[in-house]
Structure formats: C-alpha cells, structure tokens
C-alpha cells in the first residue's frame, strides 16, 4: 500500500471561505478517482502550537494508483484553482507500507 | 478519532544507522502505549522530489488518548535520544475525523 501524506500552511491573506473550499473540492475526488482507497482531509484541530494548517492522507493499493491520483486532471484542477492561490508552504511524504 | 501526522527532514550528517534507529524505536511504542489504535511510521518512498524524509501517522480514539501518547515518557525518550539529534525540520497536524 502507498500512503500519501501532505501538510499545508496557508497565506496570511487566505480567507475562511477559500480554506473551506479546499476541503469541499478535495472531498469530491474519491467519486472521481476510484484508485483512492481511503481519503482523509481537513484542517488542523488546534491542539498544539506551531502546526501546519491542513492535512491530506490518501491510501492507494500501489504506486501506480497513487500516480493516477497525483496526475489526475480533476486533482490537478483543485490544486491549481483552490490550493495554490492560498498556499504558503507544503510538506509531503509517500510511505510504502 | 484523532489522527496525528508528523513529517521530518533529517540533518545532512544523519547516518543510515541513526535513521533506522528512529524506526526501530518508534515501532516499540504500540506495545508500551495502548492508546495507539494505528501507527504507521517510515521513510519516504522516493517517488517524488522535494519531499520530507520521514512520516509518522498515529490514530487515537480521542484527544485525551493522543495527549497520553504525546507526553508519554517512552515517546519523549525516543524524541530526545533518537529524533532530536538528527532533526532538521518538522511539520505536524492533528486531524479530528
């Protein structure tokens, strides 16, 4: 299994509406990209200081399925239209488990 | 459920032995901290450039259980003795799901 993990921070000018739209748009992807076996997205819970602001955890059967998701036009459109305009920093790892 | 996610990069001087010891020590924690419901740790799979180098994904029933793990002496000892000596940067999020 491949577990894809990405954490974001947002720009200081990002609005609550823009942040909420990221979640709304990402949550459409499991219906569009059947390779997604599990998909957890959302804002940081606010338990600790100094955290990143947003997380995506996506599980796939294998690397090929992850690459379908990574390069899928519907995913790329969410990145281009909703994430990149408010993105300050990004940290990612893919785990083979 | 609380999903705790943390990504690390290591210092340039970190050795393969030091990196492997992080995994070996973290994998002892589920036997020591019963609040851990699911625990996935490991090095980046090398699929993409520019990634962080290591990921931990830990699931808990609730915030209280996560805090037991966060502050547990056995966990803190792994951080102090194995992670912090080779830590270059850290990104974390807790998701409430």
TrEMBL record, chains A, B:
InterPro entries documented for this protein: Dabb (IPR013097), Dimeric_a/b-barrel (IPR011008), HS1/DABB1-like (IPR044662)
Residue ranges annotated for the Stress-response A/B barrel domain, each copy included: 2-95
Taxonomic classification: Bacteria, Bacillati, Actinomycetota, Actinomycetes, Streptosporangiales
Name the UniProt record assigns to this protein: Stress-response A/B barrel domain-containing protein
SUPFAM superfamilies on file: Dimeric alpha+beta barrel
Record note on quaternary structure: Homodimer.
PANTHER family in the record: PTHR33178, STRESS-RESPONSE A_B BARREL DOMAIN-CONTAINING PROTEIN
Stored Gene3D superfamilies: 3.30.70.100
